[in-house]
Amino acid sequence: MGKRQRRRQRERAKRKTPPARPFIAEFPKGGQPRLRVIIDAGTPSHIRELCQKYWALAEDGTWAFRVSDIEGLQEQAAISAVSHALLLSSRCVTCEEPIQVSNRSWAARVGGKYLDRNNEKYLCRGCSNVQRCEQDAERERKAAEAEAEKDRQRRKDADDAEAIALLVSQENAKTAEKAARAVLAGAAPMTVYAAMAAYAEAAPDRPIASLQALGTTCWTGDAERDLAAVRTLYYAYLIAIHPKSPATTFAVVDGEARFVAAAARWRLVGGAAHARKDVTDLQMYLSTAPGQEAADLRQELRELISTMEVANVAEYLNGLLTKKYDYPAVPENRLPQLAEAIRHGLDSGYTPGQMICFAWRAADTSAAWKERNAPMGPAEASSASVTVLANKIHDALERRTAVPEYDPPRWHEQPLALVPGRRLLADVLRPRSPEVIAGCSLCDYQGLVEVDTKDNRPVLKRCLHPTPEAPLSP
User: Fold this and answer.
1) What is the pLDDT of residues 160-203, one digit of tens each?
2) Rounded to 10 degrees, what is the CA torsion of 300, 306, 308, 310?
3) What does the domain layout of the chain look like in residue ranges?
4) What is the separation of C-alpha 262 from the centre of its chain, rounded to a whole number of angstroms?
5) Contacts of 457 (CB under 8 A, 6+ apart)
6) Whole-structure pTM value
7) Given the DSSP bridges, would you call strands 23-27 and 458-462 parallel, antiparallel or unpaired?
């Protein structure tokens, strides 16, 4: 027999040899099978026997052998490496194929103690792989979307930063282009501008504080009024956003940089010296200008300062009641009477310092009255302080009693524009004061003085009543 023939015989013999097949067994043996065990082909016989004992079931579905009773079983991992089981009563929730498990623990978790529980949440291996692939794909898609969103946000942040930088550069480039006449739209902008000028002079190296930083008192004691005044000053090119404003000041809407007026810090366009000159020119205009427009502005300024004075004294009284005596504030229903009493005292000629004295006496008297009357409570004492204040002002006026002036304590926060507003109002009203006119030798009884114009025509102008301390002339 030749070599070729022998080779052909060997190849035919190999082709006739059937392929090895896995060993399959179902448990329990005597009843409805609940478990189908599959042991890999080529597994040694002694390992196959261990696998059958490991997976064997009693007729009730419990395990036929305890793991500790199986002789020769060292590690369960050896069983899981060559065999697995299909739970015939617990099927995949997606494809209804039996669930495949690799050890007893998983079998009991899925099929229950007797391996007969219907499955409501587990998937077979194939469906698990599909689900895992879908989850991986969804995870990758979300990661790609997140990365794209980050890129978009980075581009947006860069564009926003560029727009904000452009706005800041425009604010830094602002110069004094308009006169203070631009703020003659109301008394509040004028008063706030005068207060900002005083603020900048007192702290030249610091930005002017934002409305949010100033708190509830703000400039004039009214947040909405101050916000409107700040906007008026900004659009009049009298103030500009300070470069040291916080990042929360700016926002970009539809590609356009904007700012939050309440959060912005400010600088005076042209500096504090220029602003002081503007305030002086404004005061000069209000002092000397004839006509209804100037008269209305003077009246509006007078009413604004009066309102601020009333609110300041009322706030001081409430502070005394709450901080010193631990009483509640004046009841809401008594606030109109409190404002009326304070305004009556101011209109009668008492100074703000004297009104502070009246408020202190009213709070002290009400507290003493409460101590003498046990049934009285703190709320009644706070309410009574309004009546006591009104009575003390009335008695002082009737008896013409001298009233000292008190400075408010440090804990009392008064509006920042109150003192500059008082000064501005006093300077504006001084040329029209009857007492000042009577003591001036340069003007007539109406406060007017005759001067010559450039073409030598005589005209009447408001006299400023110059003094050695203030040698002003019209």
Assistant:
1) 888 888 888 888 888 776 544 555 678 999 999 999 999 999 99
2) -150
3) 21-123, 141-288, 291-429, 433-462
4) 12
5) none
6) 0.70
7) unpaired
